[in-house]
């Protein structure tokens, strides 16, 4: 637990949240400033800052939990779609530096905008960047 971390405090039940589920490792809550009604966050209880600190086993458990929560959301909210989102670093929109997965229910005409301008990349550029990353995996 990291001193002063809001999601550590929420995950450990020190700060209030609308909790949908909790076990030894995770807490599932409603986002207090949601993109839509029923916007869910999945938090590990351990202070993990971002994807770079997340081990593969915990990542697997988080996503397994997300599949269950997503189906519950679809059932209750009757959402037509759902975005799974996870931000790393301020430039990517991370405002709370304790790893969390967003589950955002989506509806026609909900005015939520998760989009980007498409870049023009040559086949050569695709090949070069692809090979560079591939070598590191
Ligand atoms: P991110 O921008 O990916 O770091 O997301 C942080 C999320 O935490 C935002 O969607 C906020 O609305 C949400 N948030 C901030 N404070 C609280 C809180 N006290 N309880 C629940 N959600 C919160
Ligand atoms: Zn934390």
Question: What key phrases describe this protein's structure?
Answer:
about 140 residues; binds adenosine monophosphate; 5-stranded antiparallel sheet; binds zinc ion; single chain; alpha+beta; HIT family, subunit A; about 30% helix; 3 helices
Number of helical segments with 4 or more residues: 3
Q: Provide the helix percentage.
A: 25-40%
Q: Please identify the top-level CATH class.
A: Alpha Beta
Bound compounds: adenosine monophosphate, zinc ion
- CATH homologous superfamily classification: HIT-like
Q: What is the subunit arrangement here?
A: single chain
How far apart are the first and last residues' alpha carbons, in Å? 30 Å
Q: Secondary-structure map with pairings?
A:
Layout: H1 6-11, E1 19-22, E2 26-30, E3 40-44, H2 56-77, E4 81-85, E5 101-106, H3 123-136
Antiparallel strand pairs: 1-2, 2-3, 3-5, 4-5
The chain binds adenosine monophosphate and zinc ion.
